[in-house]
Design a protein that fits this description.
It contains one helix and nine strands. It is mostly beta strands and 149 residues long. It has one domain.
Length: 149
């Protein structure tokens, strides 16, 4: 059975219940870490799951500096993403990652928390900037993965 068919309806139901009750519900990052997760600004995600998360990851800031479509740039630019990573006890740390230009490869960082090491990988920030239609930061989506090392 395709896991995405089971996970997404449950996520939608939980998000809807959270909206009705006014509660923020942390959605899970799949264990194994190669599962890519897409989030928006200030949307927390629990790893490996919401019941006993080892980490809670939140995109704290997105600074878009890539060359927009429709512009003539001499440099492709870069986008900076700052994550807030909280451990089981609530200790927080900031992790800054960046992607260069529109065709950038992933950036990663090792995070130490709960006596463990985790690899946080930034894969993509979308949509790409466009001169004709600027994208507000709250509409941007960040794709990342995390796994225990």
């Amino acid at each position: 059975m395709n896991k995405s068919l089971v996970i997404y309806p449950l996520s939608a139901l939980l998000a809807g219940l959270g909206a009705l009750t006014g509660c923020a519900i942390k959605q899970a990052v799949e264990p194994g870490g190669d599962e890519r997760v897409t989030v928006g600004l200030q949307q927390p995600r629990a790893y490996p799951g919401p019941r006993d998360p080892a980490l809670t990851l939140t995109v704290a800031d997105i600074l878009e500096g890539r060359c927009p479509r429709g512009a003539a740039c001499i440099w492709a630019g870069e986008v900076h993403v700052t994550f807030t990573v909280a451990d089981r006890l609530g200790a927080r740390q900031a992790v800054a990652l960046r992607l260069f230009g529109a065709k950038s490869t992933a950036d990663s960082a090792l995070v130490q928390a709960n006596g463990q090491r985790y690899l946080l990988v930034l894969h993509e920030v979308s949509p790409s900037p466009d001169l004709a239609r600027p994208v507000p930061p709250q509409d941007a989506r960040v794709v990342f993965s995390v796994r225990r090392r």
